[in-house]
Every structure is written in structure tokens, then in C-alpha cells.
Amino acid sequence: MAGRASVWNDPVVRDLTTAFVPATDESWRLQTSDDRQARAFRMIVDGRPDPVGGSRQGTYVLTPGGELLARGNSTDPRKIEGILRRGLEAWSALADEARSRPVPMDLLPEHRFEESFPEDGLVLEAIIQDRPGVEADARGRRWNIDHAWFSAAEVEAWWKAIEPTIGRPRPVPAPPAMLDRLVRYHLVDNARGQEAPFAPEEVREAGLTATVLPEEDASEPGRLRVDLEGRTAAETDGRWRMGRNLWASFNRGERPRGVETELLGYAEFERETGRVVSFRLIAFGETWGGSGLNGRRHAPTDAEGRLPRSPVAWRFVEGGRRGVHRVPPAFIDLYGPPWVGPAPSP
Questions:
Q1: CA 93 to CA 87: how far, in whole Å?
Q2: Low-confidence ranges of the chain (pLDDT < 50)
Q3: Contact between residue 27 and residue 56 where contact means Cβ atoms under 8 Å apart
Q4: Are 228 and 209 in contact (CB under 8 A)?
Q5: Left if phi > 0, otherwise alpha if psi is -120 to 50, otherwise beta: which for 193?
Q6: What is the pLDDT of residues 115-171, one digit of tens each?
Q7: For the chain, is the Cβ count within 10 Å smaller at the N or the C terminus?
Q8: What separation in angstroms does the CA of 307 have from each of 37, 154, 262, 263?
Q9: What is the rounded CA–CA span in Å between residue 265 and residue 183?
Q10: 156 vs 318: CA distance, rounded Å
């Protein structure tokens, strides 16, 4: 996030990118997955296809055929400028044959989770941010962005439960699959960096209900508006309980952590189809501890051995179908239902 803000907004760097075909990907998948594309990436940057630890985040300049021309990792725009210029110089020195070499099959993925995008489902933009009261670091109060995906069938199940309460409103619980996904994979403390998800047995409380509002409260005719309200809590001693997958090596050592939230918002359904056409959900809460790179794992405990709590807020808003919202959720490989597609081998 810091690199994108400091580097790719730089006017010199932006001008240089016009000579490239920019692409981005999730480095953890490329470092650990057994997908042929990930193995090819590791062969290019490390000289061997085996999974690697640490981090391979950075900027890479490659030919279409997979030859590495330049690489580096920095949030300094001048250093990235240097990488791009070295890449262009190396490209200019290549023979025409090397430039026109086709993309080999092993650079093409066997499966990408973008293919699982729920076209008729609910796509949420999920933003998490430190709330006032959290001590800012050198970059200020931190924030991060993710996406939450729900299939059309999952949304339909919720609508079918809500529809009978029109005219006689009562709280209708969200479908268990949707609520489980929200609590375990999206109400996590990744404001300052990647955090791990929660196992089912680490969820202490999970509740989200929808209550039908009067017809005149809808934003326009043909819609039904519902109030959303709930509470969640998840806590772990830090031990990994989710089996063998790409995230299993993320937790090393027992680092306790937890999240507690209160949920408030609304959604609007299209009466004729049951599709969600508007969605706003805010989660106000506190987090403590950390297991990965979330910038809180070194926080000292108090005299009674308790970890300090940090006020955090999440905002979930319908994201539409624009290209940026087709970036898969961070933990999509753990989602589980068939519509997601195959999870990569660890």
C-alpha cells in the first residue's frame, strides 16, 4: 500500500510505465503455490521452483518469454525509476527474436481466483482503518483494503429468509456461510499489514440480522431496505488450527490475538430479483495481539499480562463490477464452497 502511494503516483515513474505492460499479482501465492505459474515465477527470480519463505514483493521487469531484465523492491520512486530504466536498457539490447518469443505455457496459470468472480452475487469493498486513539506510526494512521465475495445462491438464501417478514418485520439472521466468512476472513486486523484468519472454533460470537423497514424508507420504488445489526468476537492463542494450506506457515509461535466488533448498517434488495443493489456495513471494534505482519505483535503486555487493545473500524460497501473489484479476497483459497474453484496446493 505504501509503495503504491509513494511510487506509482510519481509523475516520472508514471511516464516510464507507458513503455511497459504493467501487471500485478499477490506475492504470497507466487511464493508458495504449486500452480505452474507460481513455480515458473520462482524459477525466474530464484533459479529453482521450490516454495520460498521471506518475501518476494517487488518490481520485476520481464520479457513476454519470461526473461528477467531488472528487479528490486523499494518505496523510493527514484529507485523504482532506476529499475524501470535498467529494464528498458536491457530490453533495447535484446535481439528481435528474444523480444518476440511467445509466452511459454508454464507462465500461464492453471487456475486464477479471478475466474470465480460472483457475477450475480454480492461483491463488497472492505476497508479497515485504525480509529482515533491508535498511536500513528511514521506513515500516519494506517488502513488497508480487501474484497469480500458472496455468491448469488448465498444472497438468494438470505432474501428468501427475509421476504416472508415483509409487513411483519422481525430480525432475520444472515445465512451461516455468509456470516462465517465475514467473521473469520474479513473481520481481521490487517490495517497495518497481513493478518491470519480465524479457525471455526476460535469464533466466540457471530451474529448479524436484517430487519425489514417500511416501504417508504427504500431509496426508490421496487426496492426493499433492511437494517443490519450484529456483534462478533473471535480469539485465538495463536496456534494454527486450519490444516495444511498456503497460510499454515504464516503463524510461527503462539501469539495470542483477537477481535471484537459491533455491526451496524443497511442493505437494499431489488424486490423482483432479490439481488442486493446497495449495501453499507460498519464494524466498530477493538483488536489485540498479532501473528504475522500486522504491526502490533510486539506490543508489550500490561502488569496483568493483557495485550493492549487498539480501536479499529471496518467498512463494507457494494463494489459493483469494475475491474478493481475483481481482485480476489485475500483468503479466497480458504472460502471453501464449490463456486470458488480449486484451492492451490500448499
A1: 10
A2: 138-139
A3: yes
A4: yes
A5: left
A6: 899 989 999 999 999 887 655 554 455 788 999 999 999 999 999 999 999 999 999
A7: N
A8: 41, 37, 20, 23
A9: 16
A10: 16
Q: Which amino acid is at 58?
A: G
Phi first, then psi, for residue 189 (nearest 5°) are -90, 75
CA nearest to 279, candidates 265, 290, 293: 265
pTM for the full predicted model = 0.84
Listed by start position, the domains of the chain span: 2-107, 113-340
* C-beta neighbour count of 212 within 10 angstroms: 22
The single-letter code of the amino acid at 15 is D
List all residues 6 or more positions away from 93 whose beta carbon is below 8 Å from its beta carbon. none
DSSP state of 47: S
Number of neighbours of residue 85 by Cβ within 10 angstroms: 15
State the cell numbers at 174: 444472515
CA angle 234, 114, 30 (to 5 degrees): 80
